[in-house]
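hi! just following up on the protien thing from before. the input was this:
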Amino acid sequence: MRRKLSVLRACRRVLRPGGRIAFLTIQPTPGLERSKRRRANQVGPPAVALPTSYPSLLRSAGFVAITATDVTADYRATQQRWMLTTDCHADAIREAVGHDAFDERATTRQQTLDAIDAGLLSRFRYVAERPG
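and the predicted 3d structure came back as:
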């Protein structure tokens, strides 16, 4: 968390007053009960586990006018297309990266898709402003 806060503070410093920052993140779906949140942290990307919320981090870094937009449906569609395309080119990809690496990545993508479908993982776009 400290690292993310440091990065956000550095972003605020380099922005002109009134400048905005925007980023996308994968996170546990807001409002999950503790056991489901733990599961989301296990199947999500390494940086998904965060003891606070992104709006809270942005406020702590000195940003205002924070908006969050749920773009999970687009994220799910992208994951699905990625899996289908990978399947179409599986032989060439296996040859390039090796069987074990291919299988590991395919498993991770399927777990991510399953977590999205189970309502555990979401993708949000955050926009925040440096105070003027």
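Helices lie at 2-14, 34-43, 54-60, 72-88, 90-97, 99-117.
The chain has one domain: 2-129.
cheers
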